[in-house]
Amino acid sequence: MNTGKKIVLTAVITAVVTAVVSCYLTSFIKDNILVYLPSLNEDKNFSNKIKAVENMLEKKYLYDFDNQTLRENAIKSYVEGLEEPYTHYYTEAEFTSYMQNIRDGYVGIGVTVSVNDNNEIEVVAPFEDSPAYEAGIIPGDIIKSVEGVDYSGDTLTEAVEAIKNGMEGTIVNITIVRNGETINLSIERRDISYDSVKTEMLQDNIGYMRITGFNMDSESGEHSTSSEFEVQLEELQNAGMKKLIIDLRDNPGGVLSEVCDIADRLLPEGTITYTETKKGERKYYNSDAECINIPMVVLINGNSASASEVLTGALKDYEKAVIVGTTSYGKGIVQDVYPFYDGSGISLTVAKYYTPNGVCIHDIGIEPDITVELSEEYRESYASEIAHENDAQLQKALEIIKEK
Fold first, then answer.
1. Do the beta carbons of residue 350 and residue 335 sit within 8 Å?
2. What does the alpha-carbon distance between residue 79 and residue 299 come to, in Å, rounded to a whole number?
């Protein structure tokens, strides 16, 4: 997997037409077109130039065009010019799809992607038991085309929309590149609503909990990851759990509030994480004094990202758990989502987040306390596919926790 990563109010371009001639704005009529000369005021100059172009197109352009579509594309291009992979403008349809992605339930193939240093669409991880997972898509795969149309990092949003643009049960044809080999896949779109917390009791009353994502409630009111966690934790406790292994391998992250709710159950009173804007403004997310007090081990790998790293970093800083596996993905920035009045919206990178000890892991990741690689046979496998007895990382976690 490529370790270099770049990796879900109203802002409308408007113009006020005026006939006033001053030192700030000069206009004249040429060929029946209102033309604006450059303004000394940068904001006026920009909006007036947009209006001048629209006037020219309406008066002179040979072909028919949809002015609203042009405006949408203009705003999208304006935002994409930042070349920052987590900040995007979404049309109404795209924004609806985006919001479905961060809820627990939507129709698609179940895969998280980001933009790598080569401006390619790279798979971070598929969701466990999703169509993408079953089709054999793995972290590090490069999505080159969807239904014969090529996409790059610049058109990430369009690629995701193309993948999801179909009813449940329809097929989407995707071309990926893996280690230089081109692979064509036909994948069925399905309902991606799934249980994100799975547990079992291992020998010696050791609870094993695998969290595959941090999702909020769906619009239909289905369960969130934090509510699943509460139910599963209680069941393990009622079954006599004395120690706990939390498996965050291949977990691409999710909603910050969800992971903080879970961290609150595991940590003593104090800071879970905090965010900091470019102006130095901080927001703290805190836990209360109530927590479970049993030995814990956390499993991570290079596909443990974002919210997974929030939980891992907090447990590590409080020394509440031993971290085992390989260095995590390294996404330490936060996006806010803002809807616009017309149904469109924007996701905006607004802050970095820090572990309780003040560490920002962006582009660095979290190093485990004990580094354990999987055996060569299982290097390309998802952790969930490996039988417990063949899972070197889990076996090391069991060895450590039995000594606690």
1. yes
2. 37
- The count of residues in the chain is 404
Closest by Cα among 327, 402, 401 to 369: 327
pTM over 0.90: no
The CA distance from 8 to 254, in Å, is 8
Q: How far apart are CA 147 and CA 159, in angstroms?
A: 10
3-state helix, strand, coil in the chain (%, to 5): 30, 30, 45
Residues 6+ apart with CB under 8 A from 357: 317
Q: How far apart are CA 251 and CA 212, in angstroms?
A: 5
State the number of CA atoms in the 13 A half-sphere of 209 facing the CB: 26
Measured distance CA(386)–CA(391) in Å, rounded: 6
131 — alpha (psi -120 to 50), left (phi > 0) or beta?
Answer: alpha
DSSP state of 31: T
CA nearest to 264, candidates 255, 254, 273: 273
| Cβ–Cβ under 8 Å, residues 163 and 131 | no
Catalogue the active-site residues: 306, 317, 331
CA proximity to 140, closest of 214, 299, 250:
250
The residue with tokens 């995007």 is 88
* Segment 252-270, tens digit of pLDDT: 888 899 999 999 999 999 9
**DSSP, residue by residue, 90-130:** E-HHHHHHHHHHTBS--EE--EEEEEBTTS-EEEEEEPTTS
> Any residues with CB less than 8 A from the CB of 265 and at least 6 apart, and which?
229, 230, 233, 290, 291, 292
Rg (CA), the chain: 25
285-331 pLDDT, tens digit each? 999 999 999 999 999 999 999 999 999 999 999 999 999 999 999 99
Q: Shortest CA distance to 331 belongs to which of 311, 300, 353?
A: 353
Question: In 113-250, which ranges are continuous DSSP H helix?
Answer: 131-135, 156-164, 225-238
Could you read off the pLDDT of 5-32 as tens digits, one per residue?
A: 333 222 221 122 222 222 233 444 445 5
Distance, in Å, from the CA atom of 97 to the CA atom of 59, rounded to the nearest integer, reads: 36
Nearest one of 57, 34, 43, 82 to 346, comparing CA atoms:
82
Residues 131 and 189 sit within 8 Å (Cβ to Cβ): yes
Cα-Cα-Cα-Cα torsion 183, 139, 219, 72, nearest 10 degrees, comes to: -70
Mean pLDDT of the chain: 85
